Amino acid sequence: MVDVTPHDESGVPPAEVPELELYHPKSWWTTYVFSQDAKTIAIQYSGTAIAIGFVALVLSWLMRLQLGFPGTFDFITPEAYYQFVTMHGMIMVIYLLTALFLGGFGNYLIPLMVGARDMVFPYINMLSYWIYLLAVLVLVVSFFAPGGPTGAGWTLYPPQAILSGTPGGQGAGIILMLVSLILFIIGFTMGGLNYVVTVIQGRTRGMTLMRLPLTVWGIFTATVMALLAFPALFVACVMMLFDRLLGTSFFMPALVDAGEQLSYGGGSPILFQHLFWFFGHPEVYIVALPAFGIVSDLISTHARKNIFGYRMMVWAIIIIGALSFVVWAHHMYVSGMHPWFGFFFATTTLIIAIPTAIKVYNWVLTLWRGDIHLRVPMLFALAFIVTFVNGGLTGLFLGNVVVDVPLSDTMFVVAHFHMVMGVAPILVIFGAIYHWYPKITGRMFHEGMAQFHFWVTFLGAYAIFFPMHYVGLVGVPRRYPEIGDTAFVPDSVQDLNAFITMAALIVGFAQIVFLFNIFWSLRHGREAGGNPWRATSLEWQTPTTPPPHGNWGDHVPVVYRWAYDYSVPGASQDFIAQNDPGTGIKAPRPA
Amino acid sequence: MSVILVFLLVVFGFSLWWLSQQRLLSKPWTEQGLAVDPSHRGEAAMPTAKIALGIFLAVVGALFALFASAYFMRMEYSDWQAPPVPSVIWANTAILVAASIALEIAARTARDGRIDISRVALAIAGAATLVFLAGQLVAWQQLSLAGHYLEVNPANGFFYLLTGMHGLHIIGGLIALGFTLVALSAQAPISGQLQLRVELCAMYWHFLLFVWLGLLVLLAGWAGDFIAICKQVLT
Ligand code: HEM
Ligand SMILES: [Cu+2]
């Protein structure tokens, strides 16, 4: 190995993409509010997403209260229940998970991990957040609109979505929902362009694509997918707005509503479903791929081992991303389709399971004989793997047309998708927040509170969703506020429902511990130092912690190796940072 | 959904080509030291803004491909009738072509540093585009005078929707073009940065012209004829 000090950059080829000129804020407003620093924007995105996520959590309590103790709460009318289901689902999927993974983690981690000083278009990046905030506000306003928010289900299927029988259908609810989604998509596109172009153009010298941490690969691929998939939702929303406001019949067939013949005619609800699921299925992976990437990094760091099969992991991410655009119609088995199409979509759905399974094997093989440290981020990562496998298995069942048809629209489906795309990504989010908290704030979180939060959330989630599979198998349909007397549902299901509700309340309250910990540790947490997990990737090598504006001080780091040099035989430490030029030489100590 | 799938195929093909240059087969765990980035081939890298615009145009392309998909699917239903085609859109098309040509001239002269020609060409392009937008409004007016309101049948709905969407994108471009024109008028020796901006305007205009021609094919009913021919050939 050549003997160079890290700051002697002779022999390093000059950068080809000129460094961007940093915008230097001049006032308090431009530093903390209208900030163009990706790290600040990340925190704004995350804070907003978590805040609106708590609204969705409260809505889930209300739903569970109704399901567990039907008839006890007068204010939960069937209409209100539909509204809760709809808003809960929509907020969780789009305004929480998508915004948090891409807008939150994407903004914080991409520039730091690729060795850039900021996103390539900081101004547009800032606009992206403010438009997202506007979308959230419009969504919140719809709760107070006359007639309340829409109750059309998070899928917003027409024709019912804009008819008088659906809450908010003839009121402002559905309009505000659609406008909010359109704003979200516009805002996201601005941010998304930044994330993609920063990965392509902003990488520091030596940072080849194959040296990127998998977190960046996951977020990058998910963003590309989102850029191509969200337009479908955009088209669906715009056309539905036309139907609702201007009387066109894109989606609306001729129908009689409340005894009155409407002026619509000839439109196709199926058309909407195609557009919606062309977005909706990739959306699942838009949430999953960043989670996959982050989990890979958490596992590797906390097991002190290089990730097993890095190349395969990268390829799998790309293949999953591409394939997930040709499976959308598996959500429409019950809408009726040509059996050949059904066969095609069932096949592609099952094929996606292969790269996904490869990823799971690789995580497990990374753990194999690793030096596993069961710290809180690691606990969450392990919990994710278990949960994801669990939800993935029931997904294999549902991917088959014959199995899906009877189970479709039962609580079994609800249990399945909460496992894979509810609980699993949320576990990763918690793990990631705990993992990067010391970098973001410079302090450690309180270990005891975090452990408590983990165990209650993990076990509680199982207490909620395991029994729910059974409830679904018995035949309890989804989106029903209560089932009443049926021939097929035994009374004992009601006891189970009450149990699930108790568990949901407990899990919900445990999240307050999480929030408390986050704020409490800001002040009272132990000083974390620059690299408490002794990790290799660039974000842990910043000159100061939290990273300064511009991230790197005077010298942008130069990358000499991949992100997974843990426990390298013969090295002086059990990790070698990416910007460490040679095995014998220590990287500049982060402060 | 065939239009969007074809479009995706193109995007994926392009991504694959790009990825194939990124040494995805390399074994990063065996390579220490300063791997020279494969995209570092000595020549200057493509400007960041150009890449960003390219990706943005892919998103816009996906948007219109999805609209086209929806159009075709909606066409299958029994109440479909061909959309009315107001005659003024042919003139509009010619004007948009002219705007594109003017921008191309502006970009080329800017590259050669002939800033006064570039400035004039850019202004002409902007003016022509404004005329195009006015012409589109005239088309809407012609339609509604003839009783072809938005809600009367789905084809009308698509006509207003698609021309409107396209127009909104044009307006966005005009704003950028306006700023470029101001900058161009203020600067005597033209900077590389400014050359790039003019070039990006041209790129955006060509793309929107392309989209417009695609929409024209849809709305004028040629696409339907084409499909009918394909079906006949297949059966
Ligand atoms: C404490 C955690 C949660 C609880 C107790 C919970 C509970 C529920 C309940 C009771 C329903 C309605 C079932 C029905 O009647 O159809 C529901 C629907 C739904 N939830 Fe959750 N949920 C939780 C977290 C999440 C998360 C994290 C996500 C993120 C993906 C999510 C996404 C959805 C979706 C998409 C629906 C379907 C909405 C619809 O049918 O339109 N949930 N949830
Ligand atoms: Cu799916």
What report would you give on this structure?
Chain A: The chain crosses the membrane at residues 42-62, 82-110, 130-152, 172-193, 214-242, 284-300, 312-334, 340-364, 376-399, 411-434, 454-476, 496-520. Chain A: It is found in: Membrane. Chain A: Its main location: membrane. Chain A: Belongs to the heme-copper respiratory oxidase family. The complex is a heterodimer of chains A (591) and B (235). With 591 residues, chain A is mainly α. Chain A has 14 helices and 2 strands. Among the domains of chain A are: 34-212, Up-down Bundle (Cytochrome C Oxidase, Chain A), CATH 1.20.210; 375-441 and 445-525, no CATH class; 536-585, no CATH class. Chain A has a two-stranded antiparallel ribbon. The two termini of chain A are 26 Å apart. In chain A, 56% of the residues are buried. Mean pLDDT of chain A is 90; it is low at 1-7 and 584-591. By secondary structure, chain B is mainly alpha-helical. Chain B starts with a helix and ends with a helix. The mean pLDDT of chain B is 88. Chains A and B meet through helix 5, helix 6, helix 7 and helix 8 of A and helix 1, helix 2 and helix 5 of B. The complex binds protoporphyrin IX containing FE and copper (II) ion. Protoporphyrin IX containing FE binds at residues 60, 63-64, 85-86, 88-89, 92-93, 97, 153-154, 414, 418, 421-422, 426, 464, 478-479, 504, 507-508 of chain A.
